[in-house]
Design goal:
Layout (H helix, E strand, L loop, with lengths): L3 E4 L2 E4 L4 E7 L8 E7 L6 E7 L4 E3 L7 E6 L4 E6 L8 E9 L3 E5 L3 E6 L1
Parallel strand pairs: 2-11
Antiparallel strand pairs: 1-3, 3-8, 4-5, 4-9, 5-6, 7-8, 9-10, 9-11
Length: about 120
């Protein structure tokens, strides 16, 4: 069972940047897909970005061009670089590791990102 711990959230002004990190308890080399979700106040949790073990990425349209998901297998860490942040990006961000055939299975505790205007 993979344990995930997010960090890097905080308060930032609109237009600023943050980098979220997700440290895994074990090697992520063999985890095919990892991703980031977020849940804003009053909204459902939504998928933000995914990345495969080969480096293929996908993003929700609202963050395309502003966010970059990456992974460092040697450090067992998943990242989300967020730039040009908007108040609508305010949410709790969660990292996740997928299980084959099941989708997101392992979750971090979440880290709060608040973007002020």
């Amino acid at each position: 069972q993979v344990q995930l711990v997010e960090s890097g959230g905080g308060l930032v002004q609109a237009g600023g940047s943050l980098r979220l990190s997700c440290a895994a308890s074990e090697s992520i080399f063999s985890i095919n897909v990892m991703g980031w979700y977020r849940q804003a106040p009053g909204k459902q949790r939504e998928l933000v970005a995914t990345i495969t073990d080969s480096g293929r990425t996908n993003y929700v349209s609202s963050v395309q061009g502003r966010f970059t998901i990456s992974r460092d297998n040697a450090k067992n860490t998943l990242y989300l670089q967020m730039s040009s942040l908007k108040p609508d990006d305010t949410a709790v961000y969660y990292c996740t590791a997928y299980s084959f055939g099941r989708g997101p299975t392992y979750w971090g505790q979440g880290t709060q990102v608040t973007v002020s205007s």
